Amino acid sequence: MSYYTGLTLLLVLLMVAMIIHVISHSGFNRRQKGWFIATFATIIFCSLAEFALHCGYYDPIYKIPLTILTVLQFAIAPCFAMLFAGALGLKYQKRIVLITLAICLIIGIVCAPFGWVFYFDDTGYHRGPAFLVYEVTYFASLIYIIGTLFIVGRKFKHRDIGTIIMVLVVLAAGIIPMSIYALHIAYLAVGIAACLCYVFYNDLVQQDTKEELVEKQQKITEMQEQIIARLASLIESRDTETGMHVARTSAYVKTLAEDALASGVYTDQINDHFIELLTMLAPMHDVGKILVSDKILRKPGKLTPEEYEEIKKHASVGGTVVKQILDGIADEEHIQFAIDIATGHHERWDGSGYPNKLKENEISLSARIMAIADVFDALVSKRCYKEAIPTSEAFEIIKEESGTHFDPKLVEVFLAHKEKYEEINSSITDKN
Fold it and tell me: What is the CATH number of domain 237-427?
């Protein structure tokens, strides 16, 4: 009997641990927690009741209390399947539990005085001639659990393996022990099966929740990209006749960064994440122009020194504008990356640029890449104040400015893949 005591204690402790986990777990709502707790509490009650019947300390004076306890046990035990189904989200389980409990109670109360399902004599507890009634309800509850697992499993993306395993667990840990061993062994098996089902269900919930979060994050990222690109296009349309400058420069910087990485240039900074941020935030490079007047932006001729100083301010205020626009829709990393591009893309390698006269590696890598893309596109595009020049001439200008205006390492990579930039220039055409 000592092994039986140990098994019962193990089961009770296991169920208590599951209840504690349910209470502390944040992945379930209050209603689900209630169903799970009721499920594990039911298994505790039934296993303790079964232990009381078979503990070996029977005395005839306990006949009535044990009879009542057994009637309750036989009535409550089949309900654990509906309780678990309720925890898994099936509807109408409360009603089904109450109906099942009422039917089993009536059967138990009616049969108890006559010893049809069970009876007590001087030697203790015995099964009655109609004990099959209880076995049927027990098997029905296990079948109910299996059906529930399949129904619930349909809503999960990773359901197949998990559901199959849970069904096998219920069959192996529930029905087989019930058929071969005494009932109290089956309760231990049911408890273990319930734990494993809970673990698999919890894992499925977490996997699907994780995928939902990833999908939502992807949608948020796409929405951020669209907001940034459309805003940049709106700003760009104020000062140029070309409507595709943003699209082309984004393609240029992406290609240049990828080629630099492939060529082993600045690999300590350039990686897939860097390229993703650069491509997404490159459209923000001229966002500071939103504060420059249309009169200057759309002037068809050469700017006066005063007007040139005014338009140069778009770089100095670009960081402030970026922060105001992206605050709340992007994280700090995105915001700082965009600020670096907006404020630094007019800095020059020799330190003669603006707004801060930074030089060489003082200029952020993103801004140095942006500078080449921005100037190249400005050269090969028609503007309100100039005609486009051939790409061959633009490449020569970029080459001549290597080491003064532009990062020489990046220029070398840029010129080594001229055909790519010519293709981008020809494929992303103006819509005007």
Answer: 1.10.3210.10
